Amino acid sequence: MLLEINNLYFSHTKDKPLFQNLNLGFEEGRIIALAGESGCGKSTLLNLIYGLLDWESGEIIFNGTRLLGPKGNLVPGEAEMKLVAQNFDLMPYATVAENVGKFISNINLAQKKETVLELLEVVGLQEFAGVLPKYLSGGQQQRVAIARALSVLPKLLVLDEPFSNLDFSRKIELRERLFRYVKQHQISLIISTHELQEIMPWLDQIVILQDGRLIQNESPEETYKRPYNSYVAKLFGEVNIFSEEEAADFQLPKFSYYPKEIKISDHGTEAELLESRFAGNHYWNKVRVKNKELIMYTDEKVEGNIKVSFE
Ligand SMILES: Nc1ncnc2c1ncn2[C@@H]1O[C@H](COP(=O)(O)OP(=O)(O)OP(=O)(O)O)[C@@H](O)[C@H]1O
After folding, report:
1. What single DSSP character describes residue 135?
2. CA of residue 6 to ligand 1 center, whole Å
3. Domain end position, chosen among 214, 234, 254
4. Run of H or E including 199
5. DSSP states of 62-129 as a string?
6. CATH assignment of the domain containing 118
7. 46 contacts 82 by C-beta, under 8 angstroms
């Protein structure tokens, strides 16, 4: 196990404990998402792992070493662990390339230059090599910090919401290059996000926190198909949630159905169409079935009343 969290207790304030007996393990070489609603404790957990906060009791073991937290260790983070938080801590008077190369040895300057260029390419900032950080946007600065963290080839890279400052097209480019790079270099990655859907194809494991509690820790497929509760299902985007009574009334085996899991079917239940709107790669439809409003996606625009089935 690369990282182990055992019986961890932590509170920001006395009256409101955040983690109570948290237990969690991360295996080496994996890409792991830490997900949950805003305020569930993602950033706090990452800061604890990186040694920026002291915990009350329990232990965090990284690569066989028991971590100490700031009280016991003045320099946060182990040599083989890097965190890129939401404040990027760049050197203001050094160029982008110098920032990226900060931790790379000067013994072989040609090699250093090549590595810096490769990393700038990974984060899509080649043309900014000679620019000072203050001329970059927040999202660009964050990418410089990611490239700098990658430069030391850490065993574990911890990224706190790395795509939050990026527009959609940049996000798609960066995430693919970044995930390929970490896999190629056997870097384990923990990435906090509230946009799970966007990084799903690259994930090996999803850890879900709700109010500081670990509520699910499984593969992306398992988590998506069998969410522990409605809170988990909602992290994957739009979803129809059924109460126990409703599920019984509809004779459904599950409590949640994604909009794609409701289909038009001649053998289905009568549904009243309320709206059908073009949404790009599907039509977004609102229908009423047995007095319950449901969202379903279809390939074609829906007209007139229909029958629907649940898959
Ligand atoms: N320095 C602090 N002092 C007191 N409470 C704090 C502090 N930092 C965070 N909290 C509280 O701890 C809880 C967890 O916060 P945290 O920032 O870890 O959540 P998060 O899941 O990362 O949220 P987000 O997705 O918005 O970044 C929240 O209720 C937050 O208000």
Report:
1. G
2. 21
3. 234
4. helix 196-199
5. ETTEE--HHHH-SS-S-TTEEEE-SS----TTS-HHHHHTTTS-SSSHHHHHHHHHHHHHHTT-GGGT
6. 3.40.50.300
7. no
Expressed as residue numbers, the domain containing 147 is 3-234
What's the pLDDT tens digit per position in 13-47?
988 899 999 999 999 999 999 999 999 999 999 99
- Cβ–Cβ contacts within 10 Å for residue 8, how many? 22
Ligand 1 atom nearest to CA at 45: 18
Beta-bridge partners for 6: 59
Burial class (CB in 10 A: 0-12, 13-18, 19+), 164: middle
- Note the pLDDT of residue 185: 95
Distance CA 23, CA 207 (A): 11
Amino acid letter, 108 = N
Pick from 261, 227, 257, 259: which is nearest to 242 by CA? Answer: 257
Please count the other Cβ atoms lying within 10 Å of the Cβ belonging to residue 138: 12
ipTM of the complex: 0.96
Q: Do 109 and 205 reside in the same domain of the chain?
A: yes
Task: Indicate which residue's Cα is closest to atom 30 of ligand 1.
Answer: 39
Whether residue 53 contacts residue 47, with contact meaning beta carbons closer than 8 Å, is answered with yes
Q: Name all residues whose Cβ lies below 6 A of ligand 1.
A: 12-13, 18, 36, 38-44, 194
Nearest-CA residue for atom 31 of ligand 1: 39
